[in-house]
């Protein structure tokens, strides 16, 4: 068994109690949203419309579909990749290799689904199965994290995540003990972060669109917008897959219940909430309204992509002509911090763009219900918390230089507000 690592990282998420509460609260919230979206009043707050019995949740067929989906995505992950990227340097000075073929997996999945639909695959039946599918995905996340936790017990100390080896089993199970659990070259965390959940989200959206077409003759404009915006977001994430290798999820967090449940269940079943809502609560949307919403999404995407690409280009090659003129602050690590361009506007311009897009995804659902705005509310909380975690890590990495950056760029996410 691996001994706990040197100095213990401070506990996050409210420690073991917070972790235990989140493990109950997150799945409960997901089921509440799934039930509320299809109920008449579609209330975000208040009790769920009814409590589903086990017979509504458990279905061997749904479990089979989830496992088949994971199997398909794993097979696509193992296909030859256009590029193999190196990850960040690990504690033992090694760098892991990661296949860059996520976008290829999205295209191949689209082709397979297209062929399936031509062969009369009843994709429109998926919305009726969301509850048992979400239950099976949660079960898989739970069992998967348990196996990962057990695997981590025999992993060498150098393989453990900085934050997930507190010694408290509940906390470590939630946060994940091992940083990069792998079997041979198959990296579970990297695979789950981008493939089954994100592509599954797009597939669920498409099934909801097809079901709406079946029910009402054609999909509504609002449903088209939600599908289009979210497909752009997922396509973008997979196109820029390599960028995920520098996120705190890959570099810092272990792979435990939080990420396993987040990736496999939370993303596909709650991020598709707007499309779920629209299927059961059609909303009128005219061309002028749709144009304004498209403009909001375009502005959000412009900021999100501009900021992420600027940082990624700079981190890859600070002398790249696209970023060479930007002002920087030197740090003791030898790396520099951008202090002009997008990163001189606020300390997390990419979060700002992401939040503007989140607003654009909810607006097609009208303003009569709070439910479709859940993503915007949750995402604001997630990003504020994430920003605080990142801030701590940057302070540790860059010390005085980070203080200087904060002085020069005082706002975190929204200029003059936060
Ligand atoms: N839809 C969703 O559910 C989620 C979406 N996201 C999105 O994913 C994307 C990635 O987000 P995330 O991983 O949180 O963090 P970021 O991409 O913002 O990365 C933060 C890191 O960037 C580097 N950095 C910070 N400031 C500067 C600077 N001024 N100059 C140069 N480098 C700097 C630091 O790392 P270093 O110096 O080591 O390079 C820091 O740790 C974002 O667009 C976010 O909106 C994130 C979470 C959930
Ligand atoms: C269930 C909990 C509340 C927390 C779960 C968090 C996860 C859902 C997110 C943690 C970081 C994520 C990232 C993305 C999706 C959501 C999760 C997995 C992206 C892949 C989304 C697309 C962006 O372009 C990149 C993001 C990286 C981080």
From TrEMBL:
GO terms for biological process: cholesterol biosynthetic process. The keyword Lipid metabolism applies. It is found in: Endomembrane system; Endoplasmic reticulum membrane; Microsome membrane. The chain crosses the membrane at residues 60-79, 100-123, 129-150, 251-273, 285-304, 355-376. The keyword Transmembrane applies. Pathway: Steroid biosynthesis; cholesterol biosynthesis. GO terms for cellular component: endoplasmic reticulum membrane; nuclear inner membrane; receptor complex. It comes from Sus scrofa (Pig). Its main location: membrane. It is a multi-pass membrane protein. Its EC number is 1.3.1.70. This is Delta(14)-sterol reductase TM7SF2. Belongs to the ERG4/ERG24 family. GO terms for molecular function: Delta14-sterol reductase activity.
């Amino acid at each position: 068994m691996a001994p706990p690592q040197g100095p213990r990282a401070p506990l996050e998420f409210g420690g073991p109690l917070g972790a235990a509460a989140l493990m109950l609260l997150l799945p409960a919230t997901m089921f509440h949203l799934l039930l509320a979206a299809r109920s008449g009043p579609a209330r975000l707050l208040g009790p769920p419309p009814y409590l589903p019995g086990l017979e509504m949740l458990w279905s061997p067929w749904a479990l089979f579909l989830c496992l088949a989906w994971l199997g398909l995505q794993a097979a696509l992950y193992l296909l030859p990749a256009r590029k193999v990227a190196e990850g960040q340097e690990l504690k033992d000075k090694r760098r892991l290799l990661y296949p860059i073929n996520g976008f290829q997996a999205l295209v191949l999945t689209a082709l397979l689904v297209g062929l399936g639909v031509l062969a009369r695959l009843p994709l429109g039946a998926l919305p009726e199965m969301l509850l048992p599918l979400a239950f099976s995905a949660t079960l898989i996340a739970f069992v998967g994290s348990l196996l990962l936790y057990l695997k981590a017990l025999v992993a060498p100390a150098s393989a453990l995540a900085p934050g997930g080896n507190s010694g408290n089993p509940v906390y470590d199970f939630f946060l994940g003990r091992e940083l990069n659990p792998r079997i041979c070259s198959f990296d579970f965390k990297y695979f789950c972060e981008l493939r089954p959940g994100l592509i599954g989200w797009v597939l669920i959206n498409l099934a909801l669109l097809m079901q709406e077409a079946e029910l009402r003759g054609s999909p509504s404009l609002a449903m088209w917008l939600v599908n289009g915006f979210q497909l752009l977001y997922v396509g973008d994430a997979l196109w820029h897959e390599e960028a995920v290798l520098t996120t705190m999820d890959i570099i810092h967090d272990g792979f435990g219940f939080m990420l396993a449940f987040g990736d496999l269940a939370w993303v596909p079943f709650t991020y598709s909430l707007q499309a779920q809502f629209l299927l059961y609560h059609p909303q009128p949307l005219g061309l002028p309204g749709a144009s304004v919403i498209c403009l909001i999404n375009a502005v959000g995407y412009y900021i999100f992509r501009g900021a992420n690409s600027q940082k990624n280009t700079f981190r890859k090659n600070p002398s790249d002509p696209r970023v060479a003129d930007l002002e920087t602050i030197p740090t003791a690590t030898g790396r520099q911090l951008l202090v002009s361009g997008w990163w001189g506007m606020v300390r997390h311009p990419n979060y700002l763009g992401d939040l503007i897009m989140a607003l654009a995804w909810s607006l097609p659902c009208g303003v009569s219900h709070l439910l479709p705005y859940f993503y915007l509310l949750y995402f604001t909380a997630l990003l504020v918390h994430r920003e605080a975690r990142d801030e701590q890590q940057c302070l540790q990495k860059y010390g005085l230089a980070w203080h200087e950056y904060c002085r020069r760029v005082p706002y975190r996410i929204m200029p003059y507000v936060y």
